[in-house]
Every structure is written in structure tokens, then in C-alpha cells.
């Protein structure tokens, strides 16, 4: 099978993508032919030399980037997927694309739309599910409508900032109804970029300023004294078929994160190997573990998700109430990432996990290809 990995991207999570893609490339079964396409921070696409994969496999600590995976051909743009629309662009053999792209222009539906237009099978959620997963407010709206438990919140937009009376009203309403401490986070950023905790009105103002550097919509959430629990989900919620086991929904885990930082921030997630302790399975009763697994699958299905996602929960230490926090439709695949660790804890190795994702991508694509697109 010919696998194309997309990595890098125009995102605040560019560097995380380099780490994730390095791990994915290193663990793909060698029976597959792998091509690497790097997207730089300006959105330019570059096909990498064939020997990069071998370098990754021979040096376990190597990470894609300037030192490994040098840009080779700036003409390798979007046309690479369309059979070489430019004179110098060459078609890349491709059976499945895995966009190992985190954050904006990666898991928000934009690349997924391109791949749909190009008529290529790809790993992960479709356009709608990707966009809905990335937008924390719309995910909350859909989950709440479905009767799933969400963290109380208020949303601010840049339009609200431009109207001072509206801005003051929403901020004061958040303070009065949610109470300090509050969490502030960009609506469509990831890896805790722009997220911070506010203990008072002054800190809230600074937190909002920081969050609006990353997005035009910002969430203010009730800060819960919470345990952080995550659950891996795989399968194709719209095209699941009992005759194709790979397409069926399955939850792995859940696992619990015990941060050693103020909260599970960027450094704890990706830079500090001792930034958090991971407990798999989470230290919960069998009943709560099962509740989280079932709720994770429901949250996944509500958004029409497919392929994979990591569904994150908060468990209130005081009341023991369980809340959905967010969903990540292209979760991290670094050496300390929870998604592959939870799958591995139940016997699904990294290599088998990737093969399962490729199979799911082809199943969903085949179902879509069978649909009518014309009356003729």
C-alpha cells in the first residue's frame, strides 16, 4: 500500500506535528511504501527524499525538521495530489493519505476538504466532523443538544471586543455565573496554545488578550478542580459495518493524566517527559470506566467522527461529576502521547493501530464512492 504522510503545517502546533509524524513514519509496517510531504509555516508543500524514512527508522531519537527531511522541491504544491498539474510537479503514488497535522489547517476540515476534492482516501474525520471537533463552542453546542455533560462556559468573539458594552456584559456575566477561578482558551487552537487560568478580573483581562492572539473566538470556562481523563476512540460512526470489524466503534482506555504543572499545558504535554504522570487505566471504578468509554463513543458519534479521536473528560474532585472537555480528531502521536499508549494498553500495537487506520480510511472512502453524484 502507498501511504502519504502530511506533516508540519501552518499552525501553532507545527513542531508537534514534526514529532508525531516522526513516530508514525517510524512505526508504519515496512510492507508499505511511504512518501513524506512537508508543509512549511507559509503553507508551501515539499516532497521529501526517499531516504528520510530509513534515517528515521535507523535513528530512534531523530525528529523530522531542518536536520532531517530537508525541503527538496518547492514546486510540490497541492497539484501533487491531482496528478502533477504543474510542469515540475510529479504525481505521488497514493492509496491513503494520513494528515499528521495538528491544529489549524490540519484538523479543522481544510485539508480534509482538499483531499475530498482530490478523491483520495484519508485517515481521520471528514470535513464536518473535523471542523466541529476543532471548534470547541460548536462541539459543546452539539453535545449539549444530545444531552451529554459539558463544562459551563461563555463565548466571546472579536466582534464582541469591538463593541465595548457587549464585551463588558459578557465578561461580567461569566464572572457572576461561573465564578473565579476561570479558564480562558482559544476556541479553535490546540495543545493549550493561548490557554491560561485567571484568579481575578485583572488576570482575566490578560488571559483574554493572550487567547485572542490565537483565535477570533474565545471560551471562558468554569475552572473545575478536576482530574483529567482521556479516552481513545476509533471507528467510522457513519459507515460502521459489522461485516468489517475495522469500521466498528471501539473505545480504548480511559487513561488519567496527573499534571505536575499548574495544568496540563503545552510543556507538560510535549516538552517535559516528567510533566505529567499517566495512569492507564484511570484509577476509577469499573462502572465509571465503562461510563466514560460509552460517553466518549456517544460524543464521537454526535460529531459524525471517523477514523480516530481522543475524547477528553474532567472529573470534579469535589462532586465527582464527569464532564466532556473536548475532542481531538488528530491527537498527538509523540513518544509520550496518550492516544497510542491507551491503544497499546489493550493489545493494539502502534504498527497495528496504523494499519487499522488505513483500513478504516479505505472503508469510508469506498462507501462514499458508491454514492450517486449525478442523475446521469
Question: What would a concise description of this structure say?
Answer:
By secondary structure, this protein is of the alpha+beta class. It has helices spanning 14-27, 51-58, 110-118, 127-134, 136-145, 158-161, 164-178, 201-211, 266-271, 286-302, 338-345, 350-369; strands spanning 2-8, 33-39, 45-47, 96-99, 153-157, 182-186, 196-198, 217-222, 226-236, 250-259, 276-279, 306-316, 322-328. The relative contact order is 0.14.
Write a structural description.
- The chain is globular.
- The strands form 3 sheets. Strands 11-10-9-12-13 form a 5-stranded antiparallel sheet. Strands 3-2-1-4 form a 4-stranded mixed sheet, with helices on both faces.
- With 376 residues, the chain is an alpha+beta fold.
- Helix 1 links the parallel strand 1 and strand 2 (33-39).
- The protein has 12 helices and 13 strands.
- It has helices at 14-27, 51-58, 110-118, 127-134, 136-145, 158-161, 164-178, 201-211, 266-271, 286-302, 338-345, 350-369; strands at 2-8, 33-39, 45-47, 96-99, 153-157, 182-186, 196-198, 217-222, 226-236, 250-259, 276-279, 306-316, 322-328.
- The mean pLDDT is 90.
- Helix content is 35%, strand content 22%.
Amino acid at each position: 500500500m502507498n501511504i502519504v504522510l502530511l506533516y508540519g503545517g501552518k499552525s501553532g502546533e507545527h513542531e508537534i506535528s514534526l514529532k508525531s509524524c516522526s513516530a508514525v513514519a517510524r512505526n508504519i509496517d515496512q510492507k508499505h511504501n511511504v512518501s513524506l510531504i512537508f508543509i512549511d509555516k507559509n503553507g508551501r508543500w515539499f516532497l521529501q527524499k526517499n531516504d528520510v524514512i530509513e534515517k528515521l527508522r535507523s535513528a530512534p531519537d531523530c525528529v523530522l525538521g531542518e536536520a532531517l527531511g530537508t525541503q527538496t522541491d518547492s514546486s510540490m504544491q497541492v497539484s501533487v495530489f491531482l496528478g502533477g498539474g504543474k510542469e515540475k510537479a510529479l504525481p505521488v503514488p497514493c492509496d491513503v493519505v494520513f494528515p499528521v497535522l495538528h491544529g489549524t489547517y490540519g484538523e479543522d476540515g481544510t485539508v480534509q476538504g482538499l483531499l475530498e476534492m482530490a478523491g483520495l482516501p484519508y485517515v481521520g474525520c471528514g470535513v464536518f466532523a473535523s471542523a466541529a471537533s476543532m471548534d470547541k463552542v460548536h462541539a459543546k453546542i452539539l453535545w449539549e443538544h444530545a444531552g451529554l455533560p459539558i463544562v459551563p462556559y461563555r463565548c466571546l468573539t472579536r466582534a464582541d471586543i469591538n463593541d465595548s458594552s457587549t464585551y463588558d456584559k459578557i465578561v461580567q456575566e461569566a464572572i457572576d455565573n461561573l465564578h473565579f477561578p476561570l479558564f480562558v482558551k482559544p476556541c479553535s487552537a490546540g495543545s493549550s496554545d493561548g490557554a491560561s487560568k485567571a484568579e481575578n478580573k485583572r488576570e482575566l483581562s490578560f488571559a483574554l488578550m493572550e487567547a485572542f492572539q490565537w483565535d477570533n473566538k474565545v471560551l471562558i470556562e468554569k475552572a473545575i478542580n478536576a482530574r483529567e481523563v482521556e479516552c481513545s476512540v476509533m471507528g467510522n460512526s457513519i459507515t460502521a459495518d459489522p461485516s468489517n470489524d475495522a469500521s466498528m466503534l471501539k473505545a480504548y482506555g480511559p487513561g488519567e493524566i496527573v499534571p505536575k504543572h499548574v495544568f496540563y499545558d503545552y510543556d507538560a504535554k510535549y516538552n517535559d517527559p516528567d510533566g505529567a504522570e499517566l495512569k492507564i487505566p484511570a484509577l476509577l471504578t469499573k462502572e465509571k470506566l465503562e461510563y466514560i468509554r460509552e460517553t466518549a463513543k456517544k460524543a464521537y458519534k454526535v460529531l459524525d467522527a471517523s477514523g480516530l479521536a481522543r475524547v477528553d473528560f474532567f472529573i470534579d474532585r469535589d462532586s465527582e461529576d464527569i464532564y466532556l472537555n473536548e475532542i481531538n480528531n488528530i491527537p498527538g502521536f509523540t513518544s509520550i502521547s496518550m492516544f497510542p499508549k491507551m491503544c497499546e494498553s489493550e493489545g493494539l500495537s502502534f504498527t497495528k493501530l496504523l494499519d487499522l487506520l488505513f483500513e478504516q480510511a479505505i472503508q469510508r472512502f469506498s462507501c462514499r464512492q458508491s454514492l450517486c453524484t449525478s442523475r446521469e
